[in-house]
TrEMBL record:
Domain HTH tetR-type: 14-73
Protein name: Transcriptional regulator, TetR family
Pfam families: TetR_C_43, TetR_N
UniProt-recorded Gene Ontology molecular function terms: DNA-binding transcription factor activity; transcription cis-regulatory region binding
Lineage: Bacteria, Bacillati, Actinomycetota, Actinomycetes, Glycomycetales
Taxonomic source organism: Glycomyces harbinensis
Keyword annotations from UniProtKB, A to Z: DNA-binding, Transcription, Transcription regulation
Transmembrane intervals: none
PANTHER family given in the database record: HTH-TYPE TRANSCRIPTIONAL REGULATOR BETI, HTH-TYPE TRANSCRIPTIONAL REGULATOR RUTR
Keyword Hydrolase set for record: no
Length: 218
């Protein structure tokens, strides 16, 4: 094979990878991270085997496609919250913005609700995002606006509930999650809070729950 033919093959391979990455980003956004790989391959105009040949697994494809834009979007949400002069407004803005990301992009819905077992890069993005959320919540608690018994792990309940609500109401009432979130935020403000019947999950318990969700999804 001559040099020209080799360069042509390499160029074709690069184009296939580029088409796969773009197609995966589009399909994951529309259908979530559990979207059929066949749908991604069909949109890219390649065989499903090409995905495994180039990336090795669904998890590797997700880690090649999703973490960068997930990190950008979550960083933007955190930056907007931290820029708010009022700590409660910053906390509420952060939670609302993250829920908006869930509603607008089903890949991010899965990322935020931690439905992505086996994706190392994406797991690191989520760990970093959780630390951002912790700072935002602690700022609101220090101001006396966010109830003192709230833990950042409690946000997972908010985002898990929102994830399911979005999936079930997307076609008939796409803004229904906003009403649910308004009730939730009212319940988190200091003032009319009642004592909670149980403690927040510990970080270790969160990891156990997420591992169980991954097994249940298989």
């Amino acid at each position: 094979m001559g040099d020209g033919a080799v360069r042509s093959v390499r160029a074709d391979a690069r184009r296939n990878i580029e088409k796969l990455v773009q197609s995966a980003a589009d399909v994951f956004r529309e259908r979530g991270l559990n979207a059929p790989l066949e749908a991604i391959a069909q949109r890219a105009g390649v065989s499903t085997g090409t995905i495994y040949h180039r990336f090795g697994s669904r998890e590797a494809l997700i880690d090649a496609v999703v973490p960068d834009y997930a990190e950008d979007q979550l960083d933007e949400a955190a930056a907007g919250a931290e820029a708010c002069a009022d700590p409660w407004d910053g906390f509420a803005l952060y939670v609302e913005r993250v829920c908006e990301l869930q509603a607008s992009n089903l890949a991010l819905n899965d990322v935020i609700s931690r439905n992505h077992p086996g994706t190392a890069k994406l797991a690191e993005v989520c760990r970093r995002s959780q630390e951002q959320a912790r700072r935002i919540a602690e700022r609101a608690q220090a101001d006396g606006a966010l109830r003192a018994d709230f833990a950042v792990e409690d946000l997972l309940f908010v985002f898990w509930s929102n994830a399911m609500l979005i999936r079930f109401t997307a076609e008939t009432a796409p803004d229904a999650w906003r009403r649910s979130l308004a009730f939730t935020l009212d319940g988190l403000r200091t003032g009319a809070a009642h004592e909670l019947p149980t403690a927040a999950l510990t970080p270790a318990q969160v990891e156990q729950v997420m591992a169980g969700r991954g097994r249940a999804a298989i």
